[in-house]
Amino acid sequence: PGRAERRVKMTRMRKAIARSMKDAQNTACMLTTFQEVDMTEIMNLRKRYKDDFESMHGVRLGFMGAFVKASAFALKQIPGVNAAIDDAAGEIVYRDYCDISVAVASPKGLVVPVVRNAQSMSISQIESEIGELAVRARNDELAMEDMMGGTFTITNGGVFGSLLSTPILNSGFGTQSAILGMHFTKMRPVVMNSGEIAPRPVMYLALTYDHRLVDGREAVTFLCMVRDQIEDPRRLVLEL
Predict the structure, then answer these.
(1) pLDDT digits (tens, 9 = 90+) for 17-67
(2) Do 77 and 235 form a contact (C-beta atoms < 8 A)?
(3) Of 19, 151, 3, nearest to 76 (Cα)?
(4) Angle subtended at Cα 169 by Cα 166 and Cα 175, rounded to the nearest 5 degrees
(5) What is the full DSSP assignment across 120-136?
(6) Which of 44, 75, 118, 171 is least crowded, fewest Cβ atoms below 10 Å from its Cβ?
(7) Whole-number Å distance between alpha carbons of 167 and 153
(8) In which region does residue 96 sit, left (phi positive, over 0), alpha (psi from -120 to 50) or beta (all else)?
(9) What is the chain's mean pLDDT, rounded?
(10) Residue 220 in 3-state DSSP?
(11) What is residue 1's predicted lDDT score, i.e. its pLDDT?
(12) How many CB atoms lie within 10 A of CB 125?
């Protein structure tokens, strides 16, 4: 059998992604902290209301909208996670807005278009925006401008079956200090408050952050806020 090789020019997009990943490694002091989240309530919510939601808003109800909403809330409470270091000026830049980059699949690989002003959007608006960006990604219609300027990133390796990972900061399209990694939801035995052991759908969450700017206390508090809102979706409505 032949042992041929092929050489293919890297696309502009792939070059930018590669440069972004390496720049993050070379610049940031990356550390990852983990949490597990019981997906029972958010899954029940989706199962109960997904048809009504799609009928009302014309978009499917997924989990990403809730995670974006929960993250935007937590970013407002823990502004350091939404901030960035300006190395040239020796300053910390605090952003009062949440432009959340969301990793989606495209013919050229994973891309990270930005949901802008997520802190002011409803879950239906977030799901609609993500759906539109995903369609444009699949049709190879995203421009570089669509991926510029994010303040925080969410990636979901769970759609490919990833159980746990340590995501790399997305810093090539705008300086960021943290990235949230979602993973595959799996039934696990959980010890309940009553002491009983029950099967529950559990997802591992990972938050990689730049330890030059974000302290461990801030990172863990942020991740616990996201967990709490997902485990009790009423918090999303009440902003608790």
Answers:
(1) 788 888 888 889 999 999 999 999 999 999 999 999 999 999 999 999 999
(2) no
(3) 151
(4) 165
(5) G--HHHHHHHHHHHHHH
(6) 44
(7) 10
(8) alpha
(9) 91
(10) helix
(11) 63
(12) 17
pTM over 0.85? The answer is: yes
CA quadruple 133, 137, 140, 145: dihedral sign:
positive
Question: Do 149 and 123 contact (CB within 8 A), yes or no?
Answer: no
CB of 118 closer than 8 Å to CB of 100: yes
Report DSSP state, residue 5: -
**N-to-C CA span, the chain:** 63
Rounded Cα distance, 154 and 205, in Å: 11
- Give the H or E element holding residue 91: strand 91-93
The DSSP element (H or E) to which 12 belongs, if any, is helix 12-27
- Catalytic residue numbers, as ranges: 211, 215
Per the CB < 8 A criterion, the answer to whether 229 and 236 are in contact is yes
- The count of other CB atoms within 10 Å of the CB of residue 148 is 15
Number of residues that this document lists for the chain: 240
Contact present, 207 and 180 (Cβ < 8 Å): yes
pLDDT digits (tens, 9 = 90+) for 123-168: 999 999 999 998 888 888 888 888 888 999 999 988 888 999 999 9
Assess contact for 30 and 171: CB atoms under 8 A.
no
Which residue is listed with tokens 């989240």?
Answer: 37
Number of H helices, E strands in the chain: 6, 11
